[in-house]
Amino acid sequence: MDQPADQPDDAHRIIAIALDESTIIARNADIEQERRVAIFDLIEENRFKPLRAAEAGHAGPWRLHLAVQDGRLVLAVADEGGAPVETLLLGLARFRRPVRDYFAICDSYYSAIRKASAQEIETIDMARRAIHDQAARLLLEVLEGKVETDFATARRLFTLICVLHIKG
Predict the structure, then answer these.
(1) 54-75: pLDDT as tens digits
(2) What is the pTM for the complete model shown?
(3) Residue at 129 is within a domain
(4) Whole-angstrom distance, CA of residue 165 vs CA of residue 150
(5) 10, 50, 57, 103: least surrounded by Cβ within 10 Å?
(6) What is the domain extent for residue 97?
(7) Which residues lie across from 67 on neighbouring strands?
(8) Torsion-angle region of residue 145: left (phi > 0), alpha (psi -120 to 50) or beta?
(9) How many domains does the chain have?
């Protein structure tokens, strides 16, 4: 039976994702929860097709390792068995402001959850989602021509980029 066009097949998805713990700065419990949820949701549903690897005949599903090195995001892509397939390097300069803005609004959101009214929480959450969505669109632009992915996957990847927050 054919898969619907909007459903990724098993070859074009991430089955495992790891973050380079040595590049992660200190994070609080709220950020740690965001990381866990992003990874869980990403593994459950994603679309990820590294174009150069696919054109070279490699097939997924993929294992992805994220790290920050020399001011660049490193996406190390491996096949299902863990054999390295390709490494993508993305400049992080354009993500500095979205990461900073996202952390600032998340801090406001987590503070509001503890003491603000439902309406105030909803307003802050709408702003948080807007920043997150804008950053996901930016990530889609940066990945264009390198990786075919969808908005939901880009959104979760941006969350993980935030977790890897650039060391100062």
Answers:
(1) 999 998 899 999 998 888 999 9
(2) 0.83
(3) yes
(4) 22
(5) 57
(6) 10-163
(7) 74
(8) left
(9) 1
